[in-house]
Design goal:
alpha/beta; globular; 10 helices
Amino acid sequence: MIDLRNTFEAFANKKIIVVGDVMIDTYLKGSVNRISPEAPVPIVQFKSREHRLGGAANVALNIKALGAQPFICSVIGKDEEGNLFQRLIAESNLTDWGVLASDDRVTTVKTRVIGNNQQLLRVDNERTDPINSLTEFALIERVKKVAEKEKVDAIIFEDYNKGILTENVIQSIIEFANQNNIITTVDPKKENFFAYSNVTLFKPNLKEFKEGMGAQFEMEEREAFIEAVKGLQEKISPEYTFITLSEYGVYMGESDEHHFVPAHVRVIADVSGAGDTVISVATLCLTCNLSAKLVAEIANLAGGLVCEKIGVTTVDKEQLMSEVLAL
């Protein structure tokens, strides 16, 4: 019998690198009472501005919320937004020595304009072309340096297609991790879907999985789903294939075993950030040597809990532990 309370307490001894695309999520909030005379658009009477860490940095926040120590490895711009990102890192008590600043990048900012509690517009300021070879080399070396100095337990690849995770960066870090017995987990996007060969855990959502594999099926067609999974496993050979299936729960595959874990009935307020929580929880559970099925069950619960909250939020460790123990 596994003592899951001890497992959650063991998170405190874990060190995790999160490598990938970081960003700032900015929220401009106000009220809407009239339409502009200049164009048929609502006028937002400004009330507040809020900046939050987003992308790979939100995964780091989830790791921290679970009691472990995260290290962000990424590239930001040498710009005003980059300074703001560094400030948000410091305010969140995260270390920034894995974050590189580059002259030829911009710091990604997603600005959401919200009127009467409804999102009206999103403005993205970003560069999505791949980082250059010099920056690639610097990032790979920084990841290795952090991993060796801190003796990290796992590396999470958090891919948002913003150009940080190039094929060279991905493959160099996986090779290094495998040589040093470091767990690797991936939240992929379509662009580099098949670059993540030989990772420990590969975690697309259902949409990303279908797009990546060029597969068309309904979840009721279980055989077609399993065939697509086998196709993925043949291409990139992950130890575990973990697919989040929205209202259908999650799937965890290991060699010839297939585990389908149903979703729990919840009042869904907002699904944003759920994937960040799921990869964080799954990674920490793997570092504690839990079985594939148990990893899937706990991560599934965690994803459901954050969906009950509005906005991108981190998982509540105590709440998750009490739900896990109750089940």
